[in-house]
Structure formats: structure tokens, C-alpha cells
Amino acid sequence: MGQISTAMTITMLVIPLIVNPLTPNNTQDEWAMAFYAVAAIMVVCNILYCFLASGEQQYWAKSEYWRKIDSDKADAECDKNNKFRNDIVSAA
Fold first, then answer.
1. Cys-Cys with 22: which of 2, 34, 48, 88 at CB 3.0–4.6 Å?
2. Are the CB atoms for 38 and 15 separated by under 8 Å?
3. Is residue 29 scored above 90 in pLDDT?
4. Which of 16, 53, 59, 60 is nearest to 38 (CA)?
């Protein structure tokens, strides 16, 4: 989700940089050209999305994946705490 938001933000920032040189005199013909340029970019991006996107649920979107991550983090924290306790007991 964050990647999509980043791409959208970058696009929103870049579009004025594309449109401004296409419309130096603000005529209707220049704005038509700008509209067609932006529309062409959108069509190309949508075609790429249609061919490259997948409707399958990704491994990182499944709850089992996050449970395993949380479990691994908890195990690592527990190991760290046990090592710390063992070091204190050994030093005493």
C-alpha cells in the first residue's frame, strides 16, 4: 500500500512539470496536447498494470505470516532476556 501511495505522490508532483512546458501560452490547443499526453501516460500505465498485476493473495498479506513474524520476534526477545539473566547469574 505504501508503494502505491508513493507512486501516486510522485506522479502528482511530476505532472505539473510535464504540463507546464506543453502549455506556455495557455491556448486551447496546448491544453488539448497536455490532456492527450497525460491520458496516454495513464493508458500505458493501466495496460502495464493489467498485464503485470496478480489477483492472488500475497504471502505477506496472510495472518499466518504475521503470526510467525510476531512469534519469531517474541522468541528472539525471550532468548535475549534469558542470555542476559544467565550472564548476570554467571557473574554473581
1. 34
2. yes
3. yes
4. 16
